[in-house]
Specification:
The chain is 66% helix and 0% strand. By secondary structure, it is an all-alpha fold. It has one domain. α7 crosses α10 and α9 crosses α10. It is elongated, with a radius of gyration of 23 Å. The relative contact order is 0.11.
């Protein structure tokens, strides 16, 4: 059927628009849970992005550096080759919870298998000294995973913000104000920076407000890539804020 002539009722109807969540990496992965090349490319991209939380989770289980690196590499290799994402529940909504779930099962199975003598049984847990035992009492692998996930999201958003500012020719301004993006400055801080940049303190405050607002937008953009609907995005953003509050309060 061709396009309707001008004045036809259908001519006034807008073209269907894809939801912004339909094209996010996690949505692409869920939609192509078979062997589609697009889904695999999205999975590879998002796994590369969040490698550090996986490594941190494994390290918190007591594995030494070399074994933790090997296990991290093997985890992602199996995830990609065996397409564990094909079993993901779209109702769960968030890539972070999916990743933590499959990582938990992978590590438990791998440890049990190798401890039983299969595949050489080469994995070893490091010996804990007293300081490590004390630290372990106030931390957990899941907490470290989520903490590193939060830091990864914020770092990626911060890098994007820095690139935007750099393209605008305001590198010096960003360099001077970057310390205030996640830490609230006081009047003395504003005054010192204002003097160094030859600006009024109120002008510095306005720049900080705008940068922090844009950083928040970019953080939401980063989180959007790991969810498949608005409810999950709001939940993930709230979880990140709670993690940041806990981390800041220690």
């Amino acid at each position: 059927m061709g396009a309707p002539p001008p004045g036809h009722p259908r001519a006034a109807l807008p073209e269907p628009q894809l939801s912004r969540f339909e094209t996010t990496q996690w949505s692409v992965i869920l939609r192509g849970q078979g062997s589609q090349a697009e889904a695999r490319a999205a999975l590879e991209s998002i796994c590369t992005r969040y490698r550090q939380p996986v490594l941190g989770y494994i390290r918190e289980h007591g594995f030494g550096t070399a074994d933790a690196e090997d296990l991290t590499q093997e985890f992602f290799a199996r995830l990609l080759e065996q397409r564990w994402d094909a079993h993901a529940d779209p109702q769960r909504g968030r890539f972070r919870t999916f990743m933590l779930s499959v990582l938990r099962h992978f590590l438990a199975n791998e440890w049990a298998s190798r401890s039983a003598g299969k595949r050489g049984g080469r994995l070893k847990r490091v010996e804990f000294d007293e300081a490590t035992v004390v630290a372990a009492a106030t931390a957990s692998p899941e907490r470290e995973f989520n903490r590193l996930w939060m830091l990864t999201v914020v770092d990626r958003a911060r890098r994007r913000l820095e690139e935007e500012v750099r393209r605008g020719g305001r590198e010096a301004l960003f360099s001077a104000l970057s310390a205030f993006l996640t830490e609230a400055p006081d009047a003395h801080d504003y005054a010192a920076v204002a003097q160094a940049l030859d600006l009024k303190p109120n002008t510095v405050a306005v720049h900080v407000h705008r940068l922090r607002q844009r950083l928040r937008e970019l953080i939401r953009d980063e989180l959007t890539e790991t969810v498949c609907d608005a409810r999950s995005l709001d939940a993930e953003f709230s979880a990140l804020r709670e993690l940041a509050d806990v981390d800041h309060g220690e």
